[in-house]
Inverse folding.
């Protein structure tokens, strides 16, 4: 794994990774601490692979419109690079329609990321308005930082909680969770730590009712 450029050049990702490391310093957890170290270690690593896009990226263009983000430093950093990232379907490709085409994930660091890493996945997550990302679970523990908009997270049997810009949402390993947006979209950083393989990723056979207190399988 290349962790530092020898030519002294700065990669296009460095400002975003530094900004993200500063943002995650605010969360008192091991997963955030480890991410901050990883982001700083890899801030000059050379990205591999090319850009790609999915359907939901069209809506992301509106969120990151230059006039809208002019006074928001973190969104400006994202706006500078998001077209150069590799966007894909969320949830290991296992999320069904109608959510599937309304979600977009970019893995910046990770086994499938622009910067290779085998023990964490880090990137951006986008969910269009009025979408339910159905209930699912995985071995990796997960942490989101909302950078624009808002969403509700339902985790196991707890009542759904709404998180807006600047808030963190933490999901322990193996917990069943779902994400629901209302009138505004959600743009967030996300990180997986621990067992970051996709083999354990499972959709649960429940969707919107998860938010109405229906039993979890
Ligand atoms: Fe998840």
């Amino acid at each position: 794994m290349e962790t530092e450029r020898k030519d002294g050049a700065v990669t296009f990702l460095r400002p975003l990774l530094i900004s993200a490391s500063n943002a995650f310093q605010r969360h008192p957890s091991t997963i955030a601490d480890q991410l901050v170290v990883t982001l700083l270690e890899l801030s000059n690593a050379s990205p591999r692979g090319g850009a790609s896009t999915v359907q939901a990226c069209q809506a992301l263009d509106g969120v990151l419109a230059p006039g809208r983000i002019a006074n928001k430093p973190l969104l400006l950093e994202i706006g500078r690079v998001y077209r150069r990232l590799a966007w894909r379907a969320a949830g290991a490709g296992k999320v069904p329609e109608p959510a599937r085409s309304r979600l977009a994930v970019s893995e910046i660091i990770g086994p499938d990321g622009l910067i290779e890493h085998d023990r964490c996945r880090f990137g951006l997550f986008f969910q269009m308005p009025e979408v339910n990302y159905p209930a699912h679970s995985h071995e990796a523990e997960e942490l989101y930082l909302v950078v624009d908009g808002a969403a509700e997270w339902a985790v196991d049997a707890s009542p759904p909680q709404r998180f807006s810009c600047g808030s963190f949402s933490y999901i322990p390993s193996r917990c069943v969770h779902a994400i629901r947006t209302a009138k505004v979209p959600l743009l967030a950083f996300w990180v997986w730590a621990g067992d970051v393989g996709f083999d354990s990723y499972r959709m649960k056979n429940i969707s919107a009712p998860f938010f109405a207190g229906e039993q979890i399988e």
